[in-house]
Amino acid sequence: MKFSIHLRKYTQFPPRRRVVVTGVGVVSPLGTGSELAWSRLLKGHCGIISLKDEEYSKLPSRVAAVIPVENDTEIAKALSKSNLKLMAPATCIALVATAEALTKADWNPKSDAEKEVTGVALGMGMIDLKDVCETNNALKLGYNKVSPFFVPRILPNMAAGHISIKYGFRGPNHAVSTACATGAHSIGDAFRFIRNGDADVMVCGGAESCISPLAIAGFCRLRALSTSFNDKPEKASRPFDKLRDGFVMGEGAAVVVLEEYEHALRRNAKMYAEILGYGLSGDAAHITSPKEDGSGAILSMSRALHDSNITNNEISYINAHATSTPIGDGIESTAIRTLFKENLKDIMVSSTKGAHGHLLGAAGNLEAVFTILACYHGIVPPTINLDEPIDNLNYVANVPQKWNKTRRIALKNSFGFGGTNATLCISNI
C-alpha cells in the first residue's frame, strides 16, 4: 500500500510562539471535574447507562453515556429552568467546564488589555433536536408561543458567545462545527490563534447535549449505534474489540485554557502540557465512512507531525478516535500501522470511549484533556471492554499503563462525518 503525502514547504519565519496548557475543565459521564473524571477513567469506571423512558422503548439502541446529575448540585444549578430558558443545555455545561478550567489556570483578567488578548474557540457538533421539536409544537398553538430565545439557544456559536460575554473576553470569538472533530478542531484553531499572535490566552473546547429519542433514532437509521448490549450498557462501547457493533451517544463538555508560553511563565502559571502541532485533512470519500485505506487519517497525523517538527519515532502514545464502530476502528488501526510501521512496538494506542461513550462534538476535546493529563502524569488511560482485540497493537487493554518516557509525546485523533479529520500533537513540558 503506497501513499504520496505532499507537505508544503514554508519559507523561514521568526521562531514560532510556543503554546502551553494551563487549565482544564470537564463535565462528563464520568462526573464533573477533571480530577474526578480522570480518577474514574483510570479505575475503569463506565458512565454508560440504560435509557429507561418509555419513548426509547421501541428504539434499537437504548443506551447512552449521560452526565450523572443526581447528587451534583453544580450541574443541577447549571441546568435550572431559568438557565434553560435562555441557553441550550450544552451551553450551560460549557460554562461549568469553563469555570473549572479558568480556576485551574488562575486566569481572571481584570484590565482591558488582558481581556483583549483572551479569546474563545468553542463549538458543538449538532443542535438540540428536542428543542426544535418542542418549539415546532408550540408554533402550532400560536406564533406567540415561540420563545424569543429559541434561535439564540440553537445557534452552534452561542456557547462561545456566552463565555465571552460572561468573562468579558474580547480576543477571537470563534466557533467550530465539524461533527465529531469539533472539539479537536477548536483546540487546534485556538493553538494557531496564539501561535500567530491573535491572542495570548484562548479558552477552547466543545460541548454537546443532544441525547433524545429523535437523535437516537436518526443515528440508529444510519446503523451507527450499538444495539447488542441494551441489557449490559456498561459493555456497549468497546473500541478495537471484535464484538463492537456501534458507538454509544454521550454528552458533556471539556474546556482547555491555552496560553503563550512566555505569558504563562511571567505569571508563574502551572503548565500541564504543550501543544506542539496540529494537522487537518479531508477524506473526500463518503458522508459517514472514512476512506478504507486510512489515507485521510494518515494525512492528518502526518501534517500534525510536520507542523510539530518531530519524527514518527518520537511518538509513544496515540489517543485514538475509535468510536467502537465495525468500520471506523479498523480503518484507524490501518492508518496507524501504515504510518508508524517502523516503531509500532514502542507505541501505546487507546480509546477512552469505552468509559464515556462518544460525545460527538465534545469528543475530541474531552479526549484531548485526558491526553494532556496522560502527558502530565506519565500514565496512559485504558481501552476498556477490550476482550478480543482486532489486531496486535498495544491498545492498553482494560488497565492503565505507565508511560516511561522522559519526553512524552502523543497524537490525539478526531474524525467526523463528511470526512473531516483533525490531529493534535501534545507533549509534556
Automatic annotation (TrEMBL):
Pfam families: ketoacyl-synt, Ketoacyl-synt_C. The keyword Manganese does not apply. Signal peptide: none annotated. The lineage of its organism: Eukaryota, Metazoa, Ecdysozoa, Arthropoda, Hexapoda. Keywords: Acyltransferase, Fatty acid biosynthesis, Fatty acid metabolism, Lipid biosynthesis, Lipid metabolism, Transferase. This is 3-oxoacyl-[acyl-carrier-protein] synthase. One of its GO terms (molecular function) is 3-oxoacyl-[acyl-carrier-protein] synthase activity. May play a role in the biosynthesis of lipoic acid as well as longer chain fatty acids required for optimal mitochondrial function. The active site is at C180 (for beta-ketoacyl synthase activity). The keyword Lipid metabolism applies. Pathway: Lipid metabolism; fatty acid biosynthesis. Residues 16-428 form the Ketosynthase family 3 (KS3) domain. GO terms for biological process: fatty acid biosynthetic process. Belongs to the thiolase-like superfamily. Beta-ketoacyl-ACP synthases family. InterPro entries: 3-oxoacyl-ACP_synth-2, Beta-ketoacyl_synthase, Ketoacyl_synth_AS, Ketoacyl_synth_C, Ketoacyl_synth_N, PKS_Beta-ketoAc_synthase_dom, Thiolase-like. It comes from the Eukaryota. One of its GO terms (cellular component) is mitochondrion. It comes from Euphydryas editha (Edith's checkerspot).
